[in-house]
Amino acid sequence: MASPPPFLYPLLILIISFLWQASAIQLPSTNGARYLGNFWSSSKTLPLVGKSKAPKYEYETKYFQQKLDHFSFADLPSFQQRYLINTQHWVGPSRLGPIFLYCGNEGDIEWFAANTGFVWEIAPRFGALVIFPEHRYYGESMPYGSKEEAYKNATTLSYLTAEQALADFAVLITELKRNLSAQACPVVLFGGSYGGMLAAWMRLKYPHISIGALASSAPILQFEDLVPPETFYNIVSNDFKRESMSCFNIIKESWDVINSVGQINGGLAQLTKTFHLCRKLESVDGLSNWLESAYSYLAMANYPYPTGFLMPLPGSPIKEVCRKIDGLPDGASVLQRIFEGINVYYNYTGKVDCFNLDDDPHGMSGWDWQACTEMVMPMASNKTTSMFPEFYYDPKLNEEQCLKDFHVKPRPTWITTAFGGHAFKSALKAFGSNIIFSNGLLDPWSGGSVLEDVSETIVALITEKGAHHLDLRAATAEDPDWLLEQRSSEIKLIRGWLDKYYDEKKATFSM
Ligand SMILES: *[C@@H]1O[C@H](CO)[C@@H](O)[C@H](O)[C@H]1NC(C)=O
Ligand SMILES: *[C@@H]1O[C@H](CO)[C@@H](O)[C@H](O)[C@H]1NC(C)=O
Ligand SMILES: *[C@@H]1O[C@H](CO)[C@@H](O)[C@H](O)[C@H]1NC(C)=O
Ligand SMILES: *[C@@H]1O[C@H](CO)[C@@H](O)[C@H](O)[C@H]1NC(C)=O
After folding, report:
1. To test ligand 2's pocket by mutation, which of 171, 175, 187 has the most ligand atoms within 8 angstroms of CB?
2. The pTM is what?
3. Where does the record locate the signal sequence feature (predicted)?
4. Residue 249 in domain
5. Range of 337's domain?
6. 380 lines ligand 4 (CB under 6 A)
7. CA atoms within 13 A on the CB side of 64
């Protein structure tokens, strides 16, 4: 790898910003939907991290005129899709230089570019062109001229789908190759999280566009009943359990404690004080959701070295949280322990005066819309295995919530109909090739991804101690051996796809 940066920099990760409209009912204390929105949206994350701190990769920013609807012939306005491109290391069309395309996901593309160091770092040794197209309805790629117009209502939002995004990538790369006389140059797809899902789906739906895809932490099986709905929260819980059983138990116990304190006279004021909240707590749910989110993000960002996530975090942050929770002297209360633990996530810098639970509580984010239409990922928490409050998945409640928020009805079976899922393995084995599903098993999204080889060329690369698409991050001096190995396997596989492609080309030429 061309001189990896010798130090680590605080960067955010391209966390999947799944914001669940997760319909959930807490049993038995509250009625109605409470378990909502456990994921941050990237728009919310962006301003919190100094962009200047992100590693700078060199690229040109360009815009491409896209059709609003690839699947109808209605006369609709077009929009400008932003893409970032670097041709500096490209060996060019005459030598069939490869094209590395990162499938932009639910956020500003510059943010993903800044946090996908792996692609930038390996491009020179492959002589590759690098392109990062932005996903429609995110960043600057707004239909109808502005976010306000694009997000106006269910009609204007109706073109925000994965299918349209894939078609955008296909149209863009086809025209770009034509412009560069690079039609014969092989395209390799990359993506993390939802971007990884797009990379895998693109490889399946547009097999003629790319020769292979690296899909990192891509939960393409987190739909319908393909994996148990408890999967995500069970993995988060196990991440805590593996650090410390007592830590797990204290967190598990804490929800009831919070609820019962919340119910007594002056209880909310007491919780406000205990947790150093800026404003008086209005319901225990606000506090519970805030804690639940932190535990989930901690699991996704449970990286072996310090990172700046939504928050700056120490390496192995769950270990650190549990050290705090367990570390208070005997007699310390459950709530005191939880408070100490949560400080690791929300106040690692030690500079936070008070905690604000609801910065941007119901900001309409693109992912909310996607979760209310196609990206319906059932989630539940079962008391027997999870440290979270118990709740079950209720499609009815989910639908009601989506109708209320967006005037749209989710289609929970559409993704599996469009992209497959049932009989996924036999189907892919029969017709697919060249996909790497990389996962770290500490990542709660890994449970919805592909963890076993499907065929000789559709392979799973697993690290036991990895978290959310750790492999796509820039190299650091602290990368453990298992991470270096994972990345070097990826490079080897990609090299193999390219070699095969070139061999076949040569064979054709010499025929
Ligand atoms: C959505 O907004 C557009 C643009 O203002 C308008 O033309 C359309 O009638 C609206 N649709 C609905 C369902 O409100
Ligand atoms: C291809 O070239 C045309 C004509 O110069 C230009 O308008 C278009 O934006 C280019 N497309 C891409 C993807 O670069
Ligand atoms: C954040 O950490 C600092 C240093 O430990 C502490 O003084 C401060 O009270 C903490 N903030 C909150 C909101 O707890
Ligand atoms: C939790 O799991 C148990 C045993 O698998 C099951 O009987 C129970 O219904 C589950 N609870 C919820 C809320 O799904």
Report:
1. 175
2. 0.90
3. 1-24
4. yes
5. 228-358
6. yes
7. 24
